[in-house]
Amino acid sequence: MSASRNTLVLYTGGTIGMQQSAEGLMPASGFASRLRDQQDKHPELAAPEWQFRELLPPIDSANMNQTHWLAMVEAIRAGVEQDGCDAVLVLHGTDTLAYSAAALSFLLLGFEVPVVLTGAMLPAGAADSDAWDNLFGAMQALHAGVEPGVHLYFAGKLMHGARVSKLGTASLDAFGVLPRLRQGQCAPSIPAALDYRQPRQQVNLAVLPLYPGIQAAQLQALLSSGVQGVLIECYGSGTGPADDTELLQALQDAHQRGIVLAAISQCPQGHVEFGIYAAGSKLEASGLMSGGGMTREAALGKLFALLGAGLSQTEVEHWFALDLCGERVD
């Protein structure tokens, strides 16, 4: 862990740089000059030298998708490998900030440079905005030294990129790491197929929460849509309507067709442990693999990284069960 002396600032858009328009707040370019002006006004702020890259067009993070994640990886690599940066700060909207932090955690496995994401609940320049506090707080953390890996900085906290979630909208302290049980086996090493240098392709993924009254026909429609992986949000410790034989058969048939099925808990502080209840054991027997205590953001990002690397169903299930960057094991 060493102090950054040349940080890449990668601006993707989001509230932090938005400006008012006739239709409301919208993403805007030109954030580099605003950052430089703010730094000139406050020379007491200890921050590394920085270079600026911008993903164009800047977006509202509600529009974030896999294409943007892959573009971020490309820009991050270029800033480090071509421009000589030794740390990366990603400016990002808050709606999908935790999703991007998780995805980058798995897309940048083996990357020996710290990557910190931050954003703001209020635009830079707005009254009582948290924008500059978050931005310069993240830069000061990098200047002091941050371990390699992906992190999220918000409201004075530096958090693990694959564990954090957005918890609310009414407070500037909007992000946190919920106490979810994390235990299991760590991967002995990162396989070459998952190294950050390996190309990735887009993946057709879906998330489905279970709920009272869910019908097998609804599940079958999703599983017949060309989806490659489904993240199922189960009740409690990994249960669901196990007395619905048609629903269980739909899961089993999909798994036999090669669709990856993963399970996490709907509970904010929950984790999947299929063997506790017979209902959970039946889901597991139908082809679901346990996500343990992973968040939705982490499990979705991990599925994307594994399937996007072209791994087979068996290979995905093997690596999904192991901890790759701290997402499953404390």
From TrEMBL:
<dbReference type="Pfam" id="PF17763">
    <property type="entry name" value="Asparaginase_C"/>
</dbReference>
<feature type="domain" description="Asparaginase/glutaminase C-terminal">
    <location>
        <begin position="206"/>
        <end position="320"/>
    </location>
</feature>
<feature type="active site">
    <location>
        <position position="15"/>
    </location>
</feature>
<feature type="domain" description="L-asparaginase N-terminal">
    <location>
        <begin position="8"/>
        <end position="176"/>
    </location>
</feature>
<protein>
    <recommendedName>
        <fullName>asparaginase</fullName>
        <ecNumber>3.5.1.1</ecNumber>
    </recommendedName>
</protein>
<dbReference type="InterPro" id="IPR020827">
    <property type="entry name" value="Asparaginase/glutaminase_AS1"/>
</dbReference>
<feature type="binding site">
    <location>
        <begin position="94"/>
        <end position="95"/>
    </location>
    <ligand>
        <name>substrate</name>
    </ligand>
</feature>
<dbReference type="InterPro" id="IPR041725">
    <property type="entry name" value="L-asparaginase_I"/>
</dbReference>
<dbReference type="InterPro" id="IPR027474">
    <property type="entry name" value="L-asparaginase_N"/>
</dbReference>
<dbReference type="InterPro" id="IPR037152">
    <property type="entry name" value="L-asparaginase_N_sf"/>
</dbReference>
<dbReference type="Pfam" id="PF00710">
    <property type="entry name" value="Asparaginase"/>
</dbReference>
<dbReference type="GO" id="GO:0005829">
    <property type="term" value="C:cytosol"/>
</dbReference>
<keyword id="KW-0378">Hydrolase</keyword>
<dbReference type="InterPro" id="IPR040919">
    <property type="entry name" value="Asparaginase_C"/>
</dbReference>
<dbReference type="InterPro" id="IPR006034">
    <property type="entry name" value="Asparaginase/glutaminase-like"/>
</dbReference>
<dbReference type="GO" id="GO:0009066">
    <property type="term" value="P:aspartate family amino acid metabolic process"/>
</dbReference>
<feature type="active site">
    <location>
        <position position="94"/>
    </location>
</feature>
<dbReference type="InterPro" id="IPR036152">
    <property type="entry name" value="Asp/glu_Ase-like_sf"/>
</dbReference>
<comment type="similarity">
    <text>Belongs to the asparaginase 1 family.</text>
</comment>
<dbReference type="InterPro" id="IPR027473">
    <property type="entry name" value="L-asparaginase_C"/>
</dbReference>
<dbReference type="InterPro" id="IPR027475">
    <property type="entry name" value="Asparaginase/glutaminase_AS2"/>
</dbReference>
<dbReference type="GO" id="GO:0004067">
    <property type="term" value="F:asparaginase activity"/>
</dbReference>
<feature type="active site" description="O-isoaspartyl threonine intermediate">
    <location>
        <position position="15"/>
    </location>
</feature>
<feature type="binding site">
    <location>
        <position position="61"/>
    </location>
    <ligand>
        <name>substrate</name>
    </ligand>
</feature>
